Every structure is written in structure tokens, then in C-alpha cells.
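Q: I'm a student working through a structural biology exercise. My instructor gave each of us a protein and asked us to get a predicted structure, then write a short paragraph describing it. Mine is Thiol-disulfide oxidoreductase ResA. I'm not confident about reading structure output yet, so if you can add a plain explanation after the C-alpha cells, that would really help. Here is the sequence I was given:
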Amino acid sequence: MNKKGLIIIILTVVLIGGLYYFTMGRKTEESLPKDNITKEKNEEDREEKKEKKKITEATVGEEAPDFTLRNLDGKEVSLKDYRGKIVLINFWATWCEYCDKEMPDLQKLDKENDDLVVLAVDVMEDEEKVKNYIKKGAYDFEVVLDEEGDVAKNYLISAFPTSYFVDKDGTLIGSVPGMMEYPQMNQILKSIRENK
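A: Happy to help. First, here is the predicted structure for Thiol-disulfide oxidoreductase ResA. I'll explain a few features afterward.
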């Protein structure tokens, strides 16, 4: 084969390759927005499903998101069961060192105040482990099990312990991230009473 024939073959291959690239490249570019639109639509659908599934998140100054969880006796307990009382919702876990230090003060606060309920929400732990912990500490305030962690998510819990205060009307007053000591708990309770 001579040089001229070889050049013609190379040019033909390049020309065919260029045409193929140009037509396929155009199709790919044209399909990109559709793919992006489909992708965005799928993401929107997923977000919409999350919104439907999600219970209202905790917002200070608004009604506290209600929840119903089982207590250590297997009975269902709802936050709204305590309307007419101030509620200290305490999110905790048995392995949490600061929760352990806080528990005796929660017990004392619960015992001394008839208008207050301590509602201890254990997050995602084995029921027997929680029962043993509560029995060993001789705590008798209400303990409920957030087995799936959904209530903790709705209350935006990122660390243990975290406490929320709810007034007698069911309005979320505020939260305290981290461990509290008895004087701080008492001061917050006094402030809630004075502002009502």
C-alpha cells in the first residue's frame, strides 16, 4: 500500500470517529439536563418523604412535640399526659458518665416538687440494662424508652445528657445541653414559676 492510500484510510477513520464523537457527544450533552432534572426530582421526592415521616422538631416558644413511648412497666406514656405540670424531659443513656452524676439531682428535684415531672428518656438501649440501672440507683421518676431514637432526633439531641423544660401548657421553654446540678435545676424551675 502506498502513502497516499494510507493517508486516505487514516483520514477516513478520523472523519468517521469525529462524526461519531460529534453525534454521540451531542446526544450525551442533550441528555445531561434531563438526567440532572431526574436526579433533582428524585432528591426532591426523597426530601418530601422525609418531611412526611418526620414529626415536628422541637422549637422553643412553641408547643413541645408530643411523643408516646413505653415505660419500664411496658405502659405507654405520652408527654401530653403531663399537661398541668412542668416537665423536665431528660435525654440520657446508662453508659453516660455525666448522666450518672446528674441522676441523684433529678431524683431529688422530682421528689421535692409536686408541680414538676421528671421524664427521663433513655435513648436506644436494651430495656433490661435500663431497668437494672434504675433499680440499682433506686430512682422512681418516670423512665421511658426511645428504642429507635426518633424522639431524640425530633428534639435535636446531639449529646447526653440534654434536658428540655416544658411549661404547664405544653410550651417548650428551653433546653440545657450537658449535665445540670441541683441548684441550676432549682433556679430554672423557680424562673419558670415566676414567668407564668
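A: Here are two points you could use in your paragraph. The beta strands are 68-71, 76-78, 86-92, 116-123, 142-146, 162-166, 172-177. Residues 57 and 154 are 5 Å apart (CA to CA). It's a good idea to check both against the output above yourself.
Q: Great, thank you!
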